[in-house]
Design goal:
heterodimer; A: alpha+beta; Four Helix Bundle (Hemerythrin (Met), subunit A); Alpha-Beta Plaits; B: alpha+beta; OB fold (Dihydrolipoamide Acetyltransferase, E2P); six-stranded mixed sheet; five-stranded mixed sheet; about 20% helix; CheW-lke_dom (chain B); chemotaxis (chain B); CheW (chain B)
């Protein structure tokens, strides 16, 4: 019962269990909150229903996930609640304490499953018994409003006494039966003194004689009774009068429950046994079984429909546009006359940004969701290939957009398979090369600026330049010996390219890397390869943090406005004539000893620009994918957050743009895709 | 009036007819299925897109959605492609895309019973016969009925990018 079951189950089931644990903790927390808010009041039907629902959900969930021990307490609790709800049993103030205790017991069981903490079965049984007792007692009790019948059982004066737990150990004289004493009548008498359902009897053989010597008239049994009773010690001793000598009987009494009954209120007569003092729930955070207080997990999660989140993101996007519009209008106003307005707008901008940050963070999920799929995959593949592989992951908690997570899983899986199949060598080969027979495959994720960078690093053989070139030639992919290593590596992304000498069921079908590239590009990402022969290879996927909103620099070219993503901008400058040079008929600018090509946006986009000569305009220095360039624009307008809108929703892909956005004036502006611009520039 | 129209429509749908939005391009009258029309608006604030054919005027912001604008006058070489406050853009919603088309003028919404629609002969209309579903007659005037869905989806207009597969589009839409 106390052992956590999760350990033997598969990872997937564990995830479901996790959901149940969370739900359960939430339900318990809700229940506790309601109960505590009640004080000693009787819950109204709505609160009663809420408590009932919580108990019911826990029971249902526990049943489904196979935590049958948890259903035991919840079941009794649910029954009691159901009867209270239907007014079959009158409410008693002590019930609140009882429910709180039951909640704690469930929380303890939950902790047992979740974290493998010890579960005190006695506590659970006790709670369960008392719940049951409340049901039993309540069932016999009159419905509220009716005059109470005279109670049976203990004498009237004893009814005032508080119940307490007594443990009796009775070691009778072996000759007791010969004196005509019947144990069953003693048991029956004791049971009558005990509170309903609170009587336990245990018989133990003290010694086991040989069968031949066994005398049925000798009593060899030791009796233990546990009972919760209002009866006095005398009453109990009376039962054993004429039966037991003092030394044969041991009685242990617990302190009676010190819950003070408020004056004027009738003593709890419905069989409700107040628990051992109400805990100070509000301050005793470390109380055993206090749920929802696991570390800093007080703020539990709750599930929200994805469409609602997306709607929220869209609305925040619209808000950003409106805010940008207002700011733009405010620019034209006299700052002295409209000082308060300006101040308000600054505040609005700050608030909008905060709101946007919070909303975007809702969509972020840790990449471990994807990484967790790989240990199994790697193990299986490695076994199939006869390779020894150690998988390491880093940056598991790096968060990225929920929409990207799913889309990156496949390309990443491809890269992992590829690394195992083509990258890492067999243990023999590795040993021959002087490497450890166990290869290492590392997956790491990190956030670099506005992008998420995911590396797949293996310490295998690395990419083989000659083999790739030969294969490219064979597949009719344009290539030449003069290509740089990086250009050669990029060849593997060409459609139909595969260097595996034989087709395996893992990789090598020739549909692989090009699909990886396509999928990654589709979500605004890029793949880079670094490789060193004999040392290994590193595939780097870089993705935008989110696809929905980006920081941009808006620039003007003629009548049009463009957005340059801020994460590619290094600086902007007005070039001096001596900085401008021409190389092979192309304009370049010399910045700190480096010649950068000048990309004239008006040429690339066929626009009428005011500025066509670099020395009269502004150059925005950018860097993307390791390539640098200076973009010539007429003017810098603003730095703002823009909501990325798809042009493709209603139109087609536009070369050189990574989408569009709506500016404050309601116009559409294209967002520049720098790597694509560099390519377009080269083709001009 | 409304009830009369309602019953007329009911009758029309019963015998295979439909309602058409009529517009003019140059001297010709065209009709498109009214159910494909989302709205009609003026022409303003179009953002140019580089390296596109002249009839793609660019994109506009239609309440947060980016919508391409096609000038059918330029595409079909009719009328005069001038833009002023009376220039009309019909916003069409077909193939899960919203597209604006610029026409010379929007005339009316007419109901045409199925029997009054004749098949389109090989005729010298500015529009290719492929995109014409038939010819209707209205007040002794010929109405060229356009299959706007086919036209928008055609390679000729280059609105739908046939090289981009759906998954990629979705990815960008996120």
């Amino acid at each position: 019962m106390t052992t956590p079951r999760g350990e033997n189950e598969t990872v997937d089931l564990n995830r479901f269990n996790q959901v149940f644990f969370e739900e359960c903790a939430e339900n318990l927390a809700e229940m506790e909150q309601i109960l505590i808010s009640l004080g000693d009041r009787e819950p109204d039907p709505e609160q009663m229903n809420a408590i009932f629902r919580a108990a019911h959900s826990i029971k249902g969930g526990a049943g489904i996930f196979g935590f049958n021990d948890m259903t035991v307490v919840t079941h009794v609790m649910e029954s009691l609640l159901d009867r209270l709800r239907n007014q079959e049993i009158p409410f008693a103030p002590g019930m609140i304490d009882l429910f709180l205790e039951a909640g704690d017991a469930i929380a303890m069981q939950l902790a047992g499953h979740r974290e493998g903490k010890a579960v005190d079965q006695e506590v659970i049984d006790g709670v369960r018994a008392r719940l049951q007792q409340a049901i039993d007692a309540g069932a016999g009790a009159p419905a509220p409003g009716l005059p109470a019948d005279q109670e049976e059982g203990p004498p009237q004066q004893e009814a005032e006494q508080l119940p307490r737990r007594c443990r009796l150990a009775f070691t009778p004289d072996p000759e007791i039966f010969t004196r005509g004493i019947r144990m069953e009548s003693i048991v029956a008498e004791l049971a009558e003194l005990a509170e309903p359902g609170e009587f336990h009897c245990n018989a133990q053989l003290m010694e086991l004689p040989e069968l031949a010597e066994a005398d049925p008239e000798r009593c060899l049994t030791r009796w233990e009774f546990t009972l919760l009773t209002r009866a006095s010690l005398e009453q109990i001793l009376d039962v054993f009068m004429f039966v037991a000598d003092e030394e044969q009987l041991q009685i242990e009494e617990d302190e009676p429950v010190d819950r003070r009954t408020p004056e004027g209120e009738p003593a709890p007569e419905q069989g409700i046994v107040p628990a051992a003092g109400r805990r100070v729930y509000d301050s005793n955070e470390t109380a055993p079984g206090a749920f929802g207080r696991r570390g800093n997990e007080t703020e539990a999660s709750f599930r929200v429909n994805v469409t609602k989140v997306d709607q929220l993101v869209n609305q925040v996007g619209e808000l950003l546009i409106t805010q940008a519009m207002l700011s733009q209008i405010a620019v034209g106003l006299d700052p002295i006359l409209h000082e308060t307005l300006q101040r308000g707008l600054v505040q609005l901008e700050r608030n909008t940004r905060d709101l946007q940050g919070s909303v975007m963070s809702i969509r972020l999920v840790p990449i471990s969701i994807v990484f967790n799929r790989f240990p199994r995959l790697v193990r299986d593949i490695a076994a199939k290939l006869g390779k020894q592989v150690e998988l390491k992951t880093a940056g598991d908690s790096t968060e990225l957009d929920r929409g990207l997570i799913e889309k990156i899983a496949d390309p990443l899986g491809h890269l992992v398979r590829n690394a195992l199949d083509h990258g890492l060598e067999t243990p023999e080969t590795r040993a021959a090369c002087g490497k450890s027979p166990t290869g290492t495959l590392q997956l790491s994720a990190s956030q670099v600026g506005g992008r998420i960078v995911i590396d797949v690093i293996d310490d295998g053989a690395g990419l083989n330049r000659d083999k790739i070139l030969a294969k490219a030639l064979e597949c009719g992919i344009p290539c030449s010996e003069a290509m740089t290593d990086e250009e050669v590596w990029q060849l593997i992304f060409a459609p139909g390219f595969s260097t595996a000498s034989e087709v395996t069921d893992l990789s090598g079908r020739g549909v692989g890397m090009d699909v990886v590239m396509k999928n990654v590009q589709a979500i605004g990402g890029r793949v880079q390869i670094a490789s060193e022969a004999g040392k290994g290879a590193r595939f780097t996927i870089s993705l935008p943090l989110t696809l929905a909103i980006l920081e941009g620099l808006s620039v003007a070219v003629g009548e049009e406005k463009f957005i340059i993503p801020l994460n590619v901008v290094i600086e902007s400058l007005q070039p001096k004539p001596e900085q401008l040079k021409s190389v092979n008929g192309r304009d370049v600018v010399l910045v700190r000893g480096e010649y950068l090509p000048i990309l004239k946006l008006h040429r690339i986009f066929n626009l009428e620009a005011e500025v066509t000569e670099p020395q009269r305009g502004i150059l925005v220095l950018t860097e993307a994918d390791g390539e640098r360039g200076a973009i010539l624009v007429d003017a810098l307008l603003d730095e703002q957050q823009v909501v990325v809108k798809s042009i493709e929703t209603n139109y087609r892909r536009v070369d050189g743009s990574a989408g569009a956005t709506i500016l404050g004036d309601g116009r559409v502006a294209l967002i520049l895709d720098l790597p694509e611009l560099f390519t377009m520039h080269k083709k001009l | 009036m409304q009830t009369a129209q309602g019953s007329a429509v009911e009758q029309l749908t019963a015998d295979g007819g439909a309602e058409y939005l009529t517009f003019t391009l140059g001297s010709e009258s065209y009709g498109i299925d009214i159910l494909k029309v989302q709205e009609i608006r003026g022409y303003d604030c179009v953002t140019r897109i580089a390296n596109t054919p002249a009839f793609i005027k660019g994109v506009i912001n239609l309440r947060g959605v980016i919508v391409p604008i096609v000038d059918l006058r330029i595409k079909f070489n009719v009328g005069e492609a001038t833009y002023h406050e009376f220039t009309v853009v019909i916003i069409i919603n077909v193939l899960n895309k919203v597209v604006g088309i610029v026409v010379d003028g929007v005339s009316d919404v007419v109901a045409l019973p199925a029997q009054s629609i004749k098949p389109a002969p090989e005729l010298g209309a500015s529009l290719d016969t492929r995109y014409i579903t038939g010819l209707g007659t209205l007040n002794d005037e010929m109405l060229i009925l356009v299959d706007i869905e086919k036209l928008i989806g055609s390679d000729e207009l280059q609105i739908v990018d046939s090289t981009v597969d759906n998954t990629q589009k979705e990815a960008v839409n996120l």
